[in-house]
Specification:
407 residues, alpha/beta, Aspartate Aminotransferase, domain 2, Aspartate Aminotransferase, domain 1, 2 domains, seven-stranded mixed beta sheet, five-stranded mixed beta sheet, 12 strands, 39% helix, 15% strand, binds pyridoxal-5'-phosphate, cysteine-S-conjugate beta-lyase activity
Length: 407
């Protein structure tokens, strides 16, 4: 006997624990989905093979070959659908390949795409190195005061946003952008890596596609590269499925398993990242050598009102301006930190620091060029220890500066 199913609506934290659980076979089931490693699929007969092909052709997400993934992949897809909503999730080898897949699936030569100006920097490389060659034109806009709608042309087919941005956390009014997109019959896709499905659900706000670097908070342990594209409607899913198939995009079951293992604890990790990051951000605001602190949960952050309207929380990313400092001084602070490792990426359990290259900010309309910027990923260490580390690093940089002035 199976236990009675019920229709009680469940909170996200509950659904993320149970999504993709393996089914009972002969009355028992493991808690975790097996890591099913296979490069191909055996069929009991040619008739069975034809039946699977027919089901695939009809749009069903069923594997007739290893590239289509296994039960491990299906379980992760289910977990991502629980997070983001939507009808279909596509797994790809990295967050960047999730972005590239979205562009290649939805655009053709002669098409125009609008991208928000605080976009993840490698998107501009995708534009320069591939999209231009394919005859696809990109416009970058500051999205929040009618400029986006003014940039629409007859052949605009896609609006691609990222909200918040991943350096200064500029927030888009996604509901307003979705209304504009719908009015002009344009597909709206958004990079939801900052919120990772847990702090914001863009498909509910009207986006057609949500893109995730699952490398970051979804996997959460800095041990896997992974991306996902989640489609809100069958119409968009069909277009993405075709490109996903012919581009041969697939991921290994071990990586799928690691992401699934990570996603179970996403809500508790995120809550702790927010607690630690809030303490660090508030402490930074009180330091004389620190200028603006960027963290949407701070009441004086430029994006705070929109963040409060749309997001259920914040993550571990905090950026700050080192007052009257150049790149060299910022690098001295990074070098002096002991608990914050110097490195790109974020979303793992550990703290990281990056000195943001000025050319990465020069295209952001909201950047006022007031000093050097450091980006912290505040990890799950004890917040007092992280603050003590920042204190000694800022002090160290100050002492080095005084020595330099003194000759
Ligand atoms: C890291 C990141 C990506 C790319 O993800 P990878 O898995 O590193 O390729 C895409 N978008 C955002 C916002 C990111 O932070």
């Amino acid at each position: 006997m199976t236990r009675a199913s019920h229709n009680v609506p469940e909170a996200l934290a509950t659904r993320i624990i149970h999504a993709g659980s393996p089914p009972f076979v002969d009355g028992t089931a493991p808690v975790n989905v097996p890591v099913e490693r296979t490069s191909t699929v055996r069929h009991a007969s040619t008739a069975a093979l034809h039946a699977v092909h027919a089901r695939r052709k009809a749009g069903e997400n069923i594997a007739s070959y290893g590239r289509h993934g296994s039960q491990t992949h299906r379980a992760l897809e289910d977990a991502l659908l629980a997070l983001e909503g939507g009808v279909r999730a596509f797994l790809v080898p990295s967050g960047l390949s999730a972005i590239s897949l979205t562009f290649l699936a939805l655009l053709s030569p002669g098409d125009h795409v609008i991208v928000t100006d605080s976009i993840y920097a490698p998107v501009r490389r995708l534009d320069a190195l591939l999209l231009q060659r394919l005859g696809i034109e990109v416009s970058y806009v500051e999205p929040n005061d009618g400029r986006l709608e003014a940039a629409i042309r007859p052949h605009t087919r896609l609006i691609f946003t990222e909200s918040p941005g991943s350096l200064l956390y500029e927030i888009c009014d996604l509901e307003a952008i979705a209304r504009v997109a719908r009015r002009h019959d344009i597909v709206l896709a958004t990079d939801n890596t900052w919120a990772s499905g847990i702090l914001f659900r863009p498909l509910e706000a009207g986006a057609d596609v949500s893109v995730l670097a699952a490398t970051k908070y979804v996997a959460g342990h800095s041990d896997v590269m992974l991306g996902a594209v989640i489609a809100r409607t069958e119409a968009v899913a069909t277009r993405i499925a075709a490109a996903h198939d012919v581009l041969g995009l697939t991921i290994g079951p071990d990586d799928a398993y690691l992401a699934l293992r990570g996603v179970r604890t996403l809500p508790v990790r995120m809550a702790q990242h927010q607690r630690n990051a809030t303490r660090v951000a508030q402490w930074l605001q009180a330091q004389p050598g620190v200028g603006q602190v960027f963290y949407p949960a701070l009441p004086d952050d430029p994006g705070h009102a929109l963040w409060k309207r749309d997001f259920s929380g914040a993550n571990g990313l905090v950026s700050f301006v080192l007052k009257d400092a150049d790149q060299y001084a910022a690098e001295r602070v990074a070098d002096a930190l002991r608990l914050f490792a110097i490195g790109a990426s974020w979303g793992g359990y550990e703290s990281l620091v990056t000195v943001v290259a000025p050319e990465r900010l020069s295209d952001h309309a909201q950047w006022n060029r007031s000093g050097a910027v450091l980006r912290l990923h505040v990890g799950l260490e004890d917040a007092d220890d992280l603050i003590a580390d920042l204190e000694q690093a800022l002090q160290h940089a100050r002492v080095a500066e005084l020595h330099a002035i003194g000759g």
